[in-house]
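Milestone 3.1: sequence recovery, worked example.
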């Protein structure tokens, strides 16, 4: 197993090394390992299976570089482009927004009722007409009376009830203290709560 792996490794490393060697005939001619143009065209004939074209490589090497060394010291120009607005517009364009509730019978039925029954002549036949003028005036007067008359009278009644409840609570405490002191020996002498001057 180890010998098989060593043999496979040797074969794989020998093939690229052999491909890099230059033929002896070209070295003797004084060429530097590059084939002449006519030989490159012969290699690219219909029978050759080489995917590399030497003429294309030479043409690419002869073209001047895009980045020159003179521009390396120049300060670069940076640009910022914000595309969020476009994305937001595209997103909003995909949304379908309905414009409010659809009345019973559809939009066309509501338009037909508006034309047939004008709001001036038929105020109660309008879709959102809850009250006529008399009912609206009654509700307005009830609200004003409730705010200014009933509110103040309820506040006065609640203050009177609070004062009455406070007086009853004080009387109940006095009665409870008197009962407590009455059952103690000597009418609760020496107890601070039973002392009439402490009350």
């Amino acid at each position: 197993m180890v010998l098989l792996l060593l043999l496979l490794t040797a074969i794989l490393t020998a093939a690229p090394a052999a491909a890099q060697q230059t033929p002896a005939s070209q070295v003797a001619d004084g060429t530097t390992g590059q084939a002449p143009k006519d030989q490159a065209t012969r290699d690219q004939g219909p029978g050759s299976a080489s995917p590399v074209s030497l003429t294309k490589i030479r043409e690419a090497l002869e073209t001047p570089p895009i980045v020159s060394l003179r521009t390396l010291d120049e300060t670069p120009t940076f640009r910022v482009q914000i595309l969020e607005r476009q994305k937001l517009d595209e997103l909003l364009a995909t949304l379908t927004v309905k414009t409010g509730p659809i009345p019973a019978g559809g939009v066309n039925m509501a338009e037909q009722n508006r034309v047939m029954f004008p709001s001036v002549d038929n105020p109660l036949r309008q879709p959102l007409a809850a009250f006529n003028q008399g009912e609206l005036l009654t509700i307005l007067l009830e609200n004003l009376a409730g705010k200014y008359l009933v509110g103040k009278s309820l506040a006065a009644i609640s203050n009177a009830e609070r004062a009455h409840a406070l007086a009853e609570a004080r009387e109940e405490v006095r009665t409870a203290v008197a009962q407590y002191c009455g059952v103690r020996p000597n009418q609760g002498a020496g107890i601070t709560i039973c002392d009439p001057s402490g009350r």
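The chain has seven helices and no strands. The two ends are 114 Å apart (CA to CA).
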